[in-house]
Structure formats: C-alpha cells, structure tokens
Amino acid sequence: MYLTLSKMSDDITSKKLEATGKIDDYLKTEFENRTYGEGIKCCILVLNCLKPNKFSPYDFETGCIISKKYTKSQKYLEFDFKLNYKELSNTQTEEEIIELIKKGITISFLEISKMDIPKFNFDNFYTDLKEIFNKRGWENNDYPFKNIPFPEYLFKTSKKIPLMKESIFWELLESSRKLSRDSYEQCEVMISLLEVHSAKNIIGFEHLLRILLQKLVVY
User: Fold this and answer.
1) Strand 42-48 relative to strand 76-82: parallel, antiparallel, unpaired?
2) Angle at 101 (CA atoms; ends 96, 105), nearest 5 degrees
C-alpha cells in the first residue's frame, strides 16, 4: 500500500510541522509491503493546519474531516483532517506536536471508517498506523528509509475526461492571482472565472489540477 502524509499550512504552522517530512518517508517505507484489502492501494493523509479566515472563520477541532475523496477505479483515498490551529500554535515541543497528530488520526478514523469502501479493513489499517507512530522510527538515524515513488497509474487520465489545455489552465491561475489579495480570495475569484466555461472545461480544469496536486505531494 502506498501511504503518504501531506500538509496544508501557513508560515507559522509549517515551521511547527517540519518533522512531517521524515515522518512521511517513514510511513511510505513502513506501509510499502502492507495490504489491507483490494479497496485501497493509495492513501493520502493531509494535515489541515490553516488559520481561520473570513472564508472559513471557524477553527475546527482536531480530527475533524475537512474533505474526503475516494476513487473506486483507482483504489485511491485522500482525506484532509484538521489540526486545530490554536492547539497546534500553542505546542512547545515536538512530542506535543506528534501527540496532536496522533489525536487527529484517531478521531478522523471515526468518520473515515464509515465510508462505503469495499474490501478494505479500516480497523487493521488504523491499528497499524497508530502502532507505527508510537515506534517513532523517523527519529532513528539508522532507519532504512526508501525512496518510494508515487504510483504512476494515478497520473494516467481517462479518455472520457479530457484535460483542460495547460495554457488556459495557467492563464486562469495567473488571472485569479492578479485579481485577489490572498489565497482564500483567489479561490473565490477562480470560481467566478470558471463560471463562463463549459462543463467539459470545468471538469478538465479540476482533473488537471488534481493530477498536478498529486505530483506536488510526490516532488
């Protein structure tokens, strides 16, 4: 199974989560030869550590699922769970940060395990995930980390869903950037810009964005 840990953060929380790079490599290595059923072959866990803002003013509790996406044909699961911004900002040690991440994983299990994903043992998966965190192998300088590439098949696109032309895609991103003051407002501007496009183009935009984000997680 391919398992990777990513994050959505600002300057403050990004510094708090510097250790997640090694944790990610550790998880990839530990889960490479593990399997919990045919339902999921690739799983991306995203730590959402963004500060509340005018578009999302509520600081959700740690473990709250912000978004989730499962693609049956690709056996791919991605979900974002919240690390409460105030809780994370108040941490003083790496130990406290690790405990907060473990808390988020434990609470997120309550919702994610209810997803209708056939042939996947969530209980065993989460049991192993918590046990592996407790071992803290990323702190071992002699740990045999592996460079495990992102599954290439996920970069392949369906012929039924053509991608938006990259020139148009980047033009939209640049226009939304110039018309906004921050990343949150940029999302609102992007929605407005996409409204004049056909449904086919909008789907093509989302599909291309998803592929680029997946590559970003890897590289």
Assistant:
1) parallel
2) 145
115 in the same domain as 207: no
Angle (CA) 161 164 169, round 5°: 150
- Tally the domains of the chain: 2
Q: Do residues 65 and 133 both lie within one domain?
A: yes
User: What is d(CA 14, CA 112) in angstroms, rounded to the nearest whole number?
Assistant: 25
pTM of the predicted model, to two decimals?
0.72
Residues 9 and 117 both lie in one domain: yes
Q: Of 199, 193, 200, 203, which is closest to residue 173 (Cα–Cα)?
A: 193
Alpha helices, DSSP H, located in the chain: 11-16, 20-31, 85-89, 94-112, 122-135, 166-178, 183-194, 199-218
Claim to verify: residue 163 and residue 183 sit in the same structural domain: yes
Q: Is the domain of 146 the same as that of 161? A: no
Please tell me the distance from the alpha carbon of residue 29 to that of residue 148, in angstroms, as a whole number: 7
81, β-bridge pairs: 47, 65
Domain around 28 = 2-152
Query: What residues of the chain score a pLDDT lower than 70?
Result: 54-55, 153-161, 184, 214-219
What is the rounded CA–CA span in Å between residue 82 and residue 46?
A: 9
- Max intra-chain CA distance, the chain: 55
**What was the pLDDT predicted at 55?**
65
Same structural domain, 10 and 106: yes
Domain shared by 109 and 190, yes or no:
no
Mark which of 133, 152, 171 sits at the end of a domain.
152
